[in-house]
Amino acid sequence: MLIYLRVLKESFNFAINALRNNKLRTFLSLLGVTIGIFSIIGVLAAVDSLDKEIKGSLSSLDNSTIILMRFSFGPSEIPQWKRQQFPDVSYEEFQYLDRNLPDVEAATYALNVPRETIKFEEKTVSSVDIGAVTDDYYQIESLQLAEGRFFNEAESVSGSPVVILGHEIAQNLFGDSDPLGKQVRMYGRKFSVIGVLKKEGAGLFGGSKDTSAFLPVNVVRRIFGDNNKSTFPQIIIKPTDDVDNAEFIAVLTQQLRNFRGLKPDEVSNFFVNQLQGFADLIDNITGQMNFIGLIISGFSLLVGGFGIANIMFVSVKERTNLIGIQKSLGAKNKFILFQFLFEAVILAVIGGLIGLFLVWVISLLASQFTGDFEFVLSPWNMFLGTAVSAVIGLISGIIPAISASKLDPVEAIRTGM
Fold first, then answer.
1. Rounded to whole angstroms, how far apart are CA atoms 213 and 231?
2. What pLDDT, in 10s, does the model give residues 312-344?
3. Is the pLDDT of residue 202 over 60?
4. DSSP-based three-state secondary structure for 36
5. What is the spatial distance between Cα 378 and Cα 360, in angstroms, rounded to a whole number?
6. What angle do CA 309, 314, 317 make, to 5 degrees?
7. Do residues 156 and 218 touch, judged by C-beta distance below 8 A?
8. Which terminus in the chain has less CB density within 10 A, N or C?
9. Quick check: is 260 in a domain?
10. Whole-angstrom Cα distance, residue 141 to residue 62?
11. What is residue 368's three-state secondary structure?
């Protein structure tokens, strides 16, 4: 064991001397490994960060949550021309399912409507995301209120002119004053502020509730009408925890088919999208992105491997005389082999660590410039980068190491002279 530690120490010293004595040559040789590791770990870190951000934005929703609408989250066997003829889900269908569907913990009818401007006295906030929903949305999304309350069922059904503001909207309109009970204007009408959400923070893709306002869906339906193409309705259903999801979806599908009067041989003209399916789709996309990124980065590592092999062949040639002396003094082939192998691995790991350092620096800078979006350089990715560097060094150094170990000591000393 001690002999291997000694070989490792000597190889480390040789690698450091190579860096010191031939700075430019060694730097150019290690550049390929550095770029390769930077590319691989950069891609993995970016995709991991993207995956974390997307799933974080969905974390307030349970994976069993179901979204009924005329679009599908994923690919569908139904032709596009036929899907385009599907009707939107209606408020009456929501009421029917809410009354008749068993094992429902919460259900809400939501309208996606264009952004709106909110005014309070002389202050104005533009491009506010409007959430037109029923009262159960509070339970489905697990919204957190900083003050006030969410609207109740009576206010939802009657379409009362009340509003819950996101943290940033409330700050811009009211500053430090109490917003509860104040009247704001939107859609040419007055709405009473009854609640303010806790600060959430924005993500890379926006979507933060800090810049949103929530209204009873029926007041928005009166403004836009039920056949307005600028609105996009959906029914969101959260089943109870103990329910069998496949059975629940089957019952839900049949209930809605019955309400729409579809015959047994007719295709369902709606989509039952489960949030878990969307999460699986995200995993599939990020997996493909990782695969493509690794293939592209692999070419950089291939160049890096050639660079390490080149510097090791040069090192063998420069130290031919020393190899001959070592072998004449009794050094075995295995000792010489490991000496050069360790040196190649150490050089490659140094290049990899430089690449990891660059990824870390760029991830810090990127996190600063993108606000609340955080680039993640996980310990696993750091370990992976170091391990890949070592493997590249091992593969690149094996041939030079074998050639060094097989040198004839007499010929080696004579060549060195």
1. 16
2. 777 777 777 777 777 777 767 777 777 777 777
3. no
4. helix
5. 10
6. 125
7. yes
8. N
9. yes
10. 9
11. helix
pLDDT at 381 over 80: no
Structural domain for 140, as ranges: 87-269
Instruction: Please indicate, yes or no, if residue 231 is contained in any of the structural domains.
Output: yes
Spatial CA neighbour of 142 closest among 203, 257, 59: 59
Tokens of 56: 């974080």
**Residue indicated by tokens 């020393």:** 322
Cα distance between residue 359 and residue 42, in whole Å: 6
User: Count of CB atoms within 10 A of residue 127's CB?
Assistant: 10
Q: Can you state the angle between helices 320-328 and 409-416, rounded to 10 degrees?
A: 140
Instruction: Estimate to the nearest angstrom the gap between the alpha carbon of 159 and the chain centroid.
Output: 38
Q: In this structure, which amino acid lies at residue 135?
A: D
CA distance 231 to 114: 7
Q: Average model confidence (pLDDT) for the chain? A: 80
The reply to whether 31 and 104 lie within a common domain is no
Instruction: State the virtual CA torsion across 165, 167, 170, 174 in degrees, nearest 10.
Output: 150
Residue 307 shares a structural domain with residue 258: no
Comparing C-alpha atoms, which of 333, 345, 340, 332 is closest to residue 316?
Answer: 340
Shared domain for 225 and 142, answered yes or no, is yes
Alpha carbon distance 369, 412 (integer Å): 57
Task: Tell me what the mean pLDDT of segment 372-376 comes to.
Answer: 61
206: pLDDT strictly greater than 50: no
Bridge partners of residue 273, in order along the sequence:
67
